[in-house]
Amino acid sequence: MKTLLLHVSLYFCALSSLQSRTWTEAQTGRTLEGDFISVQGSAVVVRTGNGGTLQLPLARLSEADQTFVKEQGAAATKPAAAKADEKGSDKDDVKKQLIGTWDGFMADSDGSKHGDIRLVITADKITASNPQGNREMGAGTYKISGKRIDATGTEGQFAGKKYEGIFDLDSKTLKWCSANDNPNSSRPTKLQTNPQAGQFLMVLEKK
After folding, report:
1. Residue 37 burial (C-beta neighbours within 10 Å; 0-12, 13-18, 19+)
2. What is the pLDDT of residues 107-142, one digit of tens each?
3. Which residues fall within 8 angstroms of residue 13, CB to CB, at 6 or more apart?
4. Three-state secondary structure readout of 72-102
């Protein structure tokens, strides 16, 4: 069975739980008792009774062994795929909550009202205006990732500018703190206006 040794550097997947199995070489019918450890490239890694490990080329194993290995690979990758789907679903839910018209104000560093602002948010666009003067200020696209929100201006005074920010969405209240588009300003870590750092907070209520 030593002729079945194969060293493969490409890591495919690894499972922490060991499963004892009788492995069969398809062409000769020779067998080996060993615990399934992982799959590496085109070989399966098994642990033998003496505690050593062997790499068995999948192509030389019986059809039943190959099916078993494929099932282990599917079991290992399923949780990751499920988690990715869940993440995507959460992101979609947040985006749905963001869509609508939001009225509120720019906050000073102490949280007091500085100026009125209205945001109209669609699935892929944000339009900002001054509700008092009914004056459109500009528009742009946006992306969300976790509690981060990044906007890129496409129209008006925001055109060509990028704003890195964080947000908190609680029912119908949206707090969005964004950095100005300049080299001296970076993404905020707190939902608080900091003029020295070029970071400004908006507090909005959904209409």
Report:
1. buried
2. 999 989 988 999 999 999 999 998 876 778 899 999
3. 38, 39, 73, 76, 77
4. HHHHHHHHHHHHHHHHHHHHHHHHHHHCEEE
Alpha-carbon torsion (105, 164, 141, 85), positive or negative: negative
Q: What gap in Å lies between CA 26 and CA 88, rounded to an integer?
A: 43
Question: What is the total residue count of the chain?
Answer: 207
In single-letter form, the type of residue at position 36 comes to F
Q: How much is the pTM?
A: 0.57
Three-class secondary structure of residue 58 per DSSP: helix
Beta strands in the chain (DSSP E): 13-24, 31-40, 43-47, 53-57, 100-107, 113-121, 126-130, 135-145, 148-156, 162-170, 173-179, 199-206
